[in-house]
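[audit] Reproducing an earlier prediction to check determinism. Same input, same settings, fresh worker. If the tokens differ from the archived copy the diff job will pick it up downstream; this log only records the rerun itself.
[audit] input (185 residues):
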Amino acid sequence: MQVVFVHGPTGSTVVTVHRADGVSLVLPGYDRKHRVPHDLAHFATERALEMSGGVFGAIAAGGVFGNMRVVGGKPRHDAAARSKLLLDAHRETLTRAEVLAGVVHRAVEEDAAEQAHLLVRTAWRDLATEPFPWSDDHVHEAVRTLDELSVEWEATGTVRVIWPDHLVATLPEARGVRRGRRGRT
């Protein structure tokens, strides 16, 4: 999936996502006060931590957040129901992605890259009871990637990236849907 970040007409970031199914969507940003776009932090963090159920993995699988709009292609006939099912199923991961991307974003904004692994681990303890699932190298990769993308962003006002195919959120089966033939009596 191709993702393009550009400066919007009001100074905020506009993200255009070109999904593999041919649908293109716009995700508006609300981050004029930051040097680095928050959605760019999501991209870098979720990719480095391989969070397929985060924002971009969910979008790649057909998720559409309330503030998004379709700008190209033809969505599936069941796109709204599929999106709801997908976003509901990955709600916990989406929350975790929001918090962790926020920490990585802050580390880059405040030039605190050397503290990022401690900050991310602290945030994780507030989110989950299970052990921290990533290495410090994963966290440093997220910070390094965001830092590199922010240099491009500041120089050109546009960043074009590819979301990896292996990081697409899984779609659970719809509850109450029966598959196959009914037995005859």
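[audit] rerun output stored. Observation attached for the diff report: Residues 2-167 form one domain.
[audit] end
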